[in-house]
Amino acid sequence: MSIFLYLSLLTISFLLTLKLLFKSRALKNLPPGPPYLPLIGNLHQLKQPFHRAFYELSRKYGKVFSLWFGSRLVVVVSSQTAAQECFSKNDIVLANRPHFLTGKYIGYNNTTLVLSPYGDHWRNLRRIATLEVLSTHRINSFLEIRRDEIMRLVQKLAQECSNGFNKVELRSKLSEMTFNTIMRMVSGKRYYGEDCDVTDVEEARRFRAITKELVALGGANNPGDFISVLRWFDFDGLENKLKRISKRIDSFLQGLIDEHRNGKRNTNTMIDHLLTQQQSHPEYYTDQIIKGLIMVMLLAGTDTSSVTLEWAMSNLLNHPEILERARKEIDTKIGQDHLIDESDISKLNYLQNIVYETFRLHPAAPLLVPHLSSEDCTLEGYKVPQNTIVLVNAWAIHRDPKLWSDDSTQFKPERFEKEEGEANNLLTFGMGRRACPGANLAQRTVTLTLGLLIQCFQWKRITSQKIDMTEDKGLTMPKKIPLETMCRLCDEQFATIGNLHLLKPPVFRTFYALSQKYGPIFSTKHLTYNNTVVITSPYGDHWRNLRRICSLEILSTQRLNSFTGIRRDETARLVRSLSEGLCEGFTRVEVRSKLTELTFNTIMRMVSGKRYYGEECDGTSAEEAKKFRDVMDDMAKFGLSSNLGDFVPVVRLFDFSGDNRKLQIIGEKMDALFQGLIDEHRSKKESSNKSQPEYYTDQIIKGLIMTSAITIEWALSNLLNHPQVLEKANRLLEEDDLTKLTYLHNIISETLRLYPAAPMLLPHLSAQDCTLGGYHVPRNTLVFVNAWAIHRDPDLWAQSSTFMPQRIGEEEVDMTEGHGTLMSKAIPLEAQCKARPIITKIFSQ
Ligand code: HEM
């Protein structure tokens, strides 16, 4: 069998070689080129990176030369005039693409926009891409996504570099930024970074694994593409790998499309838009077309931009004088009180020239994308037969000293200041019909990101040694050594990004640490704050009215007394539920949910007469109760977290974490829920004092419920950590005058001291200039009072951070504080609980 195979191979090779030799002899006037071997042609002479190998060959054989890749003729163009000839006179003839194995599997059998042959199908795809995905209108509509992703990058760097120069690795951050930008445009999802769409962690992991493999295989060389005989074998298993990955990516992309089709995601994304088109033109906008477009956006639109940014930063680090000039331009034209936006870019000529110069020296597609002649044509007088692969060496043309005076290999953005418009000589995005349709998007992303990196940070090399500029293998000409650099947040930008990067949760602890450094009264650069509900509404008539309603009609002693029955009943229900099954001995119980139910049910019964938690949800349909609980859960997740846009006006323009939209949805649901309750009461014309939903705002509900449950949980946790206190409380409960319960009150006070549920109260805003501790506090300053820190001040409290002096017992309850505006316990309290005889007695009665 193996001898038979061997002989067949030999015969086929011999025949092919004869054919090749005959062909090359027959074809006169081909561009010159190096001698070649039978069967493999010049493949043995090719070394990576190919653009450099081709450049060397062009020095010997001329600006238009030919090679044989196995049995396929390849013409390499290395002059601007010849490139222009390719994309003007020969533009249509050369608008085809050669087919490779990778295109069969990861290019939907070469039907995607990048790979599809010139013709009606390509024209349609190109129209869809340019009009419906990459048009200026669409790109503008995705502006917020770009800004948000770039700001996340800035924020991440700010966190790493706020305390002076710190070493940072840029490649992964830039790559995350471009992948997230494109995927959010495509599907509304973020797949990279710690703060990736948390609901889709597994999906994000799958996506990252698939794209990693895809990018690696997309750049793989397959000898079978050129040596037809090798096509029969899959020597290194490439075809199998490609088959496997194509199935995985296809099912992943189908999942994304189905999710949008089933309405689980309903946003302004590329998929939604294409699905709308599918409804009117189902025959053309098939799922396969949509999947192909997503794939193209991912492969063509991500690495290209992040690689360019890495080169740009490397050049700036090797030329600090250029970096300095760019910074000065930003300072002069933009100033320090707002961050650069896309609309500012036209003012920043030098920054744009830096980007052009990076495009020139480091084009992300150094050989463009291979073209194929659909019929015979000529190039600089040479014959280019039908089915020839044409490669344009943009990298070499961009370094041609005849085209670029003033030392063509040096990084000099100034060369673009000349009036002749040297930028027109750039081939970075190709030319003609198949030029890059994403150029506008790429240029905007690269320039804005670079501008912000220069505006917000100081940069320097790790050592005095220059950054290594060696290129690696790969389709997009990446740097061989990933860029690592020293980075520091600019002092001036503390004012623009404020000190938010310092605000690591829990914020009150961070503020405490800052107060240790800057004194008891210190400032951070936070700006305006604007709310209208009772606890955050501005001081004035509206607030006075709300406050009056609140204290007289809702929380007055008389009203509270009238609800005593509800409170007592709910507390008894909690005690009963705890005592059930506890008579036998200690049992492990989860306390947080029980306390939350207690407080929610108490308040909601006061508000609307309804119980939404527990098995007996009186007077409430199970569905209504579930709706309520869901809204409250969402509210707990988002409603109380801080939003960067509240503090940095420029960030308000972006939905920094996508939370604005989520909060809006929660707000709408909550509004509908409360409106339903009010309407229900209105229609029943109930005028009892048992429930008055119209009086209660969401803020009151939130404030009363969460803070009470949190405080009780802290109190119980303290008691568990201090059994002697618990023991004493038990004893005194039996001995004390039950109307006083002084010791119990002290326990609660001590809990409120160490674990105030609102550790920084609520933010106050100065209505006019005033002084605090002798410092000037301007109008519109947010004032936070760090009650948590004051409660632990050793000048005020002896043994200030201890609940009780002696600790007894085994493992203590974890007392770590959670994040968020309200200071709940990080870990929900679980404890051993056993009913005391008195309870058994009461319930048996
Ligand atoms: C710095 C970033 C980028 C560079 C340097 C770049 C460069 C190129 C080049 C050289 C071509 C081939 C031109 C030719 O065949 O002669 C191309 C094609 C293409 N690029 Fe880009 N590109 C970039 C970013 C993008 C982005 C952001 C997108 C979309 C999101 C994109 C989508 C495409 C598509 C779809 C094609 C194929 C066009 C066709 O065959 O008709 N590119 N790009």
Automatic annotation (TrEMBL):
Residues binding heme, per UniProt: 436
Matching CDD domains: CYP81
Keywords of the record: Heme, Iron, Membrane, Metal-binding, Monooxygenase, Oxidoreductase
Molecular functions per Gene Ontology: heme binding; iron ion binding; monooxygenase activity; oxidoreductase activity, acting on paired donors, with incorporation or reduction of molecular oxygen
Obligatory cofactor(s): heme
UniProt xrefs under Gene3D superfamilies: Cytochrome P450 (1.10.630.10)
Subcellular location: Membrane
GO cellular component: membrane
Family the UniProt entry places it in: Belongs to the cytochrome P450 family.
Name under which the protein is recorded: Cytochrome P450
